[in-house]
Write a structure and sequence with these properties.
Blueprint (H helix, E strand, L loop, with lengths): L3 E7 L5 H11 L3 E5 L1 H4 L2 H9 L6 E5 L1 H10 L7 E5 L2 H9 L6 E6 L7 E4 L2 E3 L1 H12 L3 E4 L8 E2 L5
Parallel strand pairs: 1-4, 1-5, 2-3, 2-4, 5-8
Antiparallel strand pairs: 6-7, 8-9
Length: 158
């Protein structure tokens, strides 16, 4: 059984929906934030750590280090939420050998080169290609903002 409780693309990383809905739903014991810039930013790491309950572990990793940690695995007692800002980060970790059974899209807001993809989810053509790459690798990609929502299969939207 995998120790990964949730892998989520959310450009807000740690925020209310993750802390209230998903943390409770998954009973996660650890959160792994994967973002190359955040991993090098001591202030941002401190802000992220303060946003997480004291009983939940937090690590902030580059994509390369996160992939190595995911390949190594976690103890069975751990339940880990993996959070990334962009589909590119998942693809980068896959290039380093990490595999993903499921990826949840929870927040990809409007930005330059992005168009509305599904409700409040936006994606560029390049990001849509990355989502297809994940699906082609056997990953189930869904959109599900909060745990109580029904999951929407991204493969049907592409």
């Amino acid at each position: 059984m995998s120790s990964i409780a949730l892998t989520r693309i959310d450009d807000r990383l740690i925020h209310g929906q993750v802390m209230t809905s998903w943390l409770n739903y998954t009973s996660a014991t650890k959160i792994m934030v994967v973002d190359d810039k955040a991993a090098e930013d001591l202030f941002l790491k401190s802000v992220l750590k303060n946003a997480v309950p004291k009983n939940v572990g937090l690590g902030v990793f580059t994509a390369e280090k996160a992939a190595a940690r995911l390949v190594k695995g976690f103890p069975e007692t751990d339940k880990v939420i993996v959070l990334v800002k962009y589909p590119a980060t998942i693809c980068k970790m896959m290039e380093y050998g990490a595999t993903f059974e499921k990826v949840n899209i929870g927040g990809m807001g409007a930005a330059k080169n992005r168009e509305k993809f599904y409700k409040n989810i936006s994606a560029s053509e390049e990001e849509k290609e990355m989502l297809k790459k994940m699906i082609d690798a056997g990953c189930k990609v869904t959109i599900q903002i909060i745990a109580e929502d029904s999951a929407v299969d991204v493969a049907k939207l592409l």
